[in-house]
Amino acid sequence: MDDVWKLESSQEDLGSDLLDNMYVQPALKGDKNAQRFLVRLWKEKWSSIKNKLETEGSVWYVWWMDGVHAFMRKKMKEVV
Question: Which of 26, 30, 52, 61 has the smallest C-beta neighbourhood within 10 Å, fewest atoms?
Fold first, then answer.
């Protein structure tokens, strides 16, 4: 029954987990390289990104998934 509300594909789940583990968590802990990566990914100031990462909701979800998709495209280019 839980899958009824599942919006992400398995690839998006993986992209979301990788983005969070590789960049978001380190950035929130002060990693400047991770912060710069996220600034380039979302094309926003770090303060704005940090503020959004600390909130949730439908607007946050759309913003987050835009970042996940950009991350996935970036990583696919690196693989190919």
Answer: 30
Rounded Cα–Cα distance for residues 62 and 67 (Å): 9
Q: Per the domain annotation, does 10 fall within a domain? A: no
Q: How many domains does the chain have?
A: 1
Q: Which domain holds residue 61?
A: 17-79
Residues 79, 18: Cα–Cα separation, whole Å: 15
DSSP the chain: -GGGG--S-HHHHHHHHHHIIIIIHHHHTT-HHHHHHHHHHHTS-HHHHHHHHT--SHHHHHHHHHHHHHHHHHHHHHH-
State pLDDT tens for residues 16-59. 999 999 999 999 999 999 999 999 999 999 999 999 998 888 88
